[in-house]
Structure formats: structure tokens, C-alpha cells
Design a protein that fits this description.
Layout: E1 21-24, E2 29-32, E3 35-36, H1 37-43, H2 46-55, H3 61-72, H4 81-87, H5 94-108, H6 118-144, H7 157-166, H8 177-190, H9 197-206, H10 212-224, H11 231-244, H12 249-257, H13 278-294, H14 299-313, H15 315-319, H16 327-336, H17 344-365
Antiparallel strand pairs: 1-2, 2-3
Bound molecules: carboxymethyl coenzyme *A (CMC).
Pfam families: Citrate_synt (PF00285)
Protein name: Citrate synthase
Organism: Flavivirga algicola
Length: 391
């Protein structure tokens, strides 16, 4: 037994070796399996990126088609899941609903827990990639009071997600390529980010050999928090509040810097990036393009740009190397796409799904031991028990 060093928040503790995502926070570099995020966002589609993250190589046309066919074959969700959905109050936060439904999938597919062979593992992987978008669409439609249905398997993976979410009750739907391309890009940019809070959660839950769906459900819960994936919702709420308050960005900058005020500038700062988050650069440009293409003039975008400019020039932010992160502009695009604010983090989960799966699979294939951190005990030493009447 050596001396145990405590590292709160694991700021300087590596939990694993991984060959999936490379991140250089000083230089602002992000690569999936060696490919730059900029190039993937520009040239690949989300399903190819999912395959790349999970299996390590970009798929050939045949591999990609087979992968997609296998996913489509798994896109039916047990009808009884609708009963669970019915039991949630209308005001339930979609992240709570989606994490419960993901966990429930294990109950409906108990064999998915057996992943002793690569073949079994593959089955669980395509199963969740097939069913998760259906759960996302159902969660959204239920909240909106729209009828629930399945997608259209003649469509691409991302095209189908949008149709499942937005098809009218009478079956009417017109595909908008701008929205498909925008969502594809956003999902790629969110697809993995090495050992962040939710991914570490997925690996540690999975390390007890709990099933993939249970591990993912835990990851979704971790993502929900406003310091992590929940920041995209928090950013938009903050921008709305600034707008409603007359658009005075300076006032909110002062609040963010005031140490007696718990307010933080949401969408700013990152544990690892001490330079521009490369995803934020791409998303900022995409936000401009998408809103332009859709003909939307959103005053919220102007407030965001103003806030960013001020923060980048402000000594407090410069000293602490706080830059806009991936969540700063993503919500503005989601909003332009007609996705309600409380669904933003669910969209993040949809994008992060392949990364979580890849990390879980890597952990299992490498036969990593159960995750079990140590502690330094700081409580009472041995005490004598006092009966309740004498306390
Ligand atoms: N606004 C104002 N001050 C900040 C902010 C912010 N957004 N972020 C960090 N700081 C300050 C913090 O108060 C501290 O100051 P001091 O040294 O004077 O005490 C210093 O910067 C370092 O912050 P920290 O909290 O020790 O850094 P961390 O690595 O523990 O936290 C973070 C990282 C992302 C949780 C944090 O920057 C934050 O809360 N940001 C706002 C929430 C957010 O946008 N989260 C999304 C992260 S990216 C996507 C994702 O993970 O899902």
C-alpha cells in the first residue's frame, strides 16, 4: 500500500489508455482516430464517423451499407416502452425521460448484457444505434403532443432522425437539406471527446460488467448537468435572460467575474482546452451559415457574438484562458432548426452516443479492471456507540 494522492475532479489523473480521440488543449487540436475534426465535419457523415470511432477505421462503402442495414433492422422499439413514456408527467425534462428509457431497454432486451464475444458486442451496438433515435423522437413528440411512430428506413440515418422528429401527424414532411447537413455536422462535432465526465461514467459503470444500455443511461445522466452537456441549454437561457434584461452584456460580464456571485458565463471555459475549442470555431461559422440559409435573423446570435468579443478581450477571461466551448453556439443552431431548448442536451446525447459506445467497447476489449478509486479518510477515528436515550 503506497501513499494515496487525492486529485479532486481527476484534473491530473489518467484513468485509461485509449486509441480513440486525441485532444491537445493547449493547441486546440481534436482528432478522432487520427482524423482532424475539421476534415471529418467537412467531408464525412455522422454514420461514417460513428463507425470510425467504434471500429477504428473509416468504413468502405460495403461496410457502411451493412452497418446501416444492421442498424435499421434494430430500429423497432417494444410497444410497451410507450406505456413508460405515457407515465411521465408532461413537464418531465427530456434528459430524465431519455436516460430512463435507455435503461429500460435492458429490461426489454435482456440478452444485450451478454457481450462475451465480439459478435454479441456488435449486436448490442447496432441495437442501441437503431433504437436510440426512436427514443429521442418519441421523447420529443410526446412532449409536443404529437403521435408516435417509427421512421422511414429508406432515408439516411440523420435524415431519418429529423423526419421522425418533425413529420406532421398527417404524414406530411418536406426534407430540408440545410437542416440535414447542419445536424450531421453538429452530431459529428459532439461524437467523442475522450475522458470527460459522461464518458468516464460510461467506462466506470461498464467496468462492473453492467450492460451497455445501463452504462449509457448513466452517461446520459452525467451529461445532463449544466457544467457538462446541460451547458447548451443553459447558454440559451442565459442569452434569453440577457436579451430580456435589455441586452446589457457588460452587466453579465461583471456578474461572471464577481466571485461573490455564483453566475458563470455559460459556454465559456473548459477543463482541457486552454485555447479556442476547435469545435466552437466550426459551430460559430455553421451558426452564421445555417441561420443565413434559413433566412433567420436571430438577435440572440448578435448577443452571443458581442459577449464572445468582450470576453476574449477581458483580462479576467484572458488570465484564466477561458474561451468559448462547443456549447456556446450549438444551441443557436438547434433553435434555428426548431428544436426546443430543453431538447438541446438530448441532441448532444444523440451525437455522443458513438463515442460512449466506442469507449465502452474499448474498455471491455482491453479487459480493463473494475473502476474503483481510493480515498483519503478524514472522518472520526474509532468511537464508542451511545444508546439513543443517552445522546
Ligand atoms: N465564467 C466565469 N468564470 C469561470 C468560468 C465561466 N464560465 N469558467 C471558469 N471560470 C473561472 C473559475 O471561477 C476559476 O476562477 P478562479 O481561479 O478565480 O477561482 C477559474 O476560471 C478556473 O475554473 P474551474 O472551475 O477551476 O475550471 P474547471 O476545469 O473545474 O471547470 C468548466 C471547467 C467547463 C466546468 C467551467 O469552465 C465552467 O463551469 N464553465 C461553464 C459551463 C460550461 O460551459 N460547460 C460546458 C463545458 S464544454 C462541453 C461539455 O463538457 O459538455
Amino acid at each position: 500500500e503506497g501513499v494515496i494522492t487525492v486529485d479532486p475532479g481527476y484534473k491530473n489523473t489518467g484513468s485509461c489508455e485509449s486509441a480513440i480521440t486525441f485532444l491537445d488543449g493547449e493547441k486546440g487540436i481534436l482528432r478522432y482516430r487520427g482524423y482532424s475534426i475539421e476534415e471529418l465535419a467537412e467531408k464525412a457523415d455522422f454514420l461514417e464517423v460513428a463507425y470510425l470511432l467504434i471500429f477504428g477505421e473509416l468504413p468502405t462503402k460495403e461496410q457502411n451499407d451493412k452497418f446501416h442495414d444492421d442498424i435499421k433492422a434494430e430500429s423497432i422499439v417494444d410497444e410497451d416502452v410507450k406505456k413508460i413514456l405515457d407515465a411521465f408527467p408532461k413537464a418531465a425534462h427530456p434528459m430524465g425521460v431519455i436516460s430512463s428509457l435507455t435503461s429500460a431497454l435492458t429490461a426489454f432486451n435482456p440478452s444485450s448484457v451478454n457481450v462475451d464475444s465480439e459478435e454479441d458486442m456488435y449486436k448490442s451496438v447496432v441495437r442501441i444505434l437503431g433504437k436510440f433515435p426512436v427514443l429521442v423522437a418519441w421523447t420529443f413528440r410526446k412532449k409536443e403532443g404529437l403521435p408516435l411512430d417509427y421512421g422511414d428506413n429508406s432515408l439516411g440515418y440523420v435524415e431519418n432522425i429529423l423526419k421522425m422528429m418533425f413529420v406532421k401527424p398527417n404524414g406530411e414532411y418536406t426534407q430540408n437539406q440545410i437542416l440535414v447537413d447542419a445536424l450531421d455536422k453538429l452530431l459529428i462535432l459532439h461524437a467523442d471527446h475522450e475522458q470527460n465526465c459522461s464518458t468516464s461514467t460510461v467506462r466506470i459503470v461498464g467496468s462492473s460488467h453492467a450492460g451497455l444500455f445501463a452504462s449509457l443511461s448513466a452517461g446520459i445522466s452525467a451529461l445532463w448537468g449544466p457544467l457538462h452537456g446541460g451547458a447548451n441549454q443553459a447558454v440559451l437561457e442565459m442569452l434569453e435572460a440577457i436579451k430580456a434584461d435589455g441586452g446589457d452584456t457588460k452587466k453579465y460580464m461583471a456578474k461572471a467575474k464577481d466571485k461573490s456571485d455564483p453566475f458563470r458565463l455559460m459556454g465559456f471555459g473548459h477543463r482541457v482546452y486552454k485555447n479556442f475549442d476547435p469545435r466552437a470555431r466550426i459551430i460559430k461559422k455553421a451558426a452564421d451559415e445555417v441561420l443565413g440559409d434559413l433566412g433567420i435573423d436571430d438577435p440572440i446570435l448578435d448577443i452571443a457574438k458581442g459577449l464572445e468579443k468582450e470576453a476574449l478581450e477581458d483580462q479576467y477571461f484572458v488570465d484564466r484562458r477561458l474561451y468559448p466551448n462547443v456549447d456556446f453556439y450549438s444551441g443557436i443552431i438547434y433553435r434555428g432548426m426548431g428544436i426546443p431548448t430543453d431538447m438541446f442536451t438530448v441532441m448532444f446525447a444523440l451525437g455522443r452516443l458513438p463515442g460512449w459506445i466506442a469507449q465502452w467497447r474499448e474498455m471491455r476489449l482491453r479487459k480493463e479492471p473494475i473502476g474503483r478509486p481510493r480515498q483519503v479518510y478524514i472522518g472520526e477515528t474509532a468511537r464508542e456507540f451511545v444508546p439513543i436515550e443517552k445522546r
